[in-house]
Amino acid sequence: MTSVARLVVRAGMGRVGQEILLADDVTTLGRAASCQVVIDDDFASRRHAQIVRRDEIYWLRDLDSKNGTLLDNEPVTAETPLADGAEIRIGSVILRFVDPAATRTQPNLAAVETLLRVEANARQVWLHGEVLTPPLTAKQFDLLLYLYQRTGEAVSKDELAAAVWPEDQSEAVYDYQVDKMVSRVRERIGKEWIETVWGYGYRLRRE
């Protein structure tokens, strides 16, 4: 029998520590009484966000809410896979996602990694099973490929500068240029994929 993931109330609902089972394939969060998880907060929309279960992976999406949904303090702008221990914030309410299946790392990790694939020879990016169109620019692709080949590792801005602008090594490549390029790639593939390693550089998520 498959274990059911759950949300644990961390703050804002007056029931800290309470567990909410995610028994349905679709769980809606919001102020409306019809929601499976009722968020009693002035900053929550009536139908604010949803957690969707597909192939044993849980995904979070914002339902065009007025004040937005945060996942680990980052705005949710596209459907995003939930990792065990991730924190969802709606207004003042904080919910921690707990997935008992996280111990089954091999199948789950393999399933998530298929969501993003970068093919060096074809210079193509596959996202959710489809080729990203229009394609990334040459330098955007070089940056993503460099991170992809080092998935899970923290990569410094100096390394990225050398990989993306090899022709400019006789001149300085500034941090803001790397940051701007990362921002553009995030806009194309989703902000959730590239994590900021503060004071150092960036990391491509494993899940």
- SSE order: EEEEEEEEEEEHEEEHEHHEE
Number of helices: 4
Question: What are the segments in which pLDDT stays under 50 over at least 5 consecutive residues?
Answer: 103-113
Beta-strand content bin: 25-35%
Fraction of residues in H or I helices: 10-25%
- Give the helix/strand class: alpha+beta
Q: Characterize the quaternary organization of these chains.
A: single chain
Query: Strand order, biggest sheet?
Result: 2-1-11-10-7-8
Arithmetic mean of pLDDT: 85
Largest sheet: 6 strands, antiparallel
- How many β-strand runs? 17
Shape: elongated
Any idea what the radius of gyration is?
19 Å
What's the N-to-C terminus distance?
24 Å
Helix-strand blueprint:
Layout: E1 6-11, E2 19-21, E3 26-30, E4 37-38, E5 49-54, E6 57-62, E7 70-71, E8 74-75, E9 80-81, E10 87-90, E11 93-98, H1 105-113, E12 116-119, E13 124-127, E14 130-131, H2 138-148, E15 155-156, H3 157-164, H4 175-189, E16 194-197, E17 201-204
Parallel strand pairs: 3-4
Antiparallel strand pairs: 1-2, 1-11, 3-5, 5-6, 6-9, 7-8, 7-10, 10-11, 12-13, 13-14, 15-17, 16-17
Helix pairs in contact: 2-4, 3-4
Feature tags:
six-stranded antiparallel sheet; single chain; five-stranded mixed sheet; 207 residues; alpha+beta; 4 helices; 21% helix
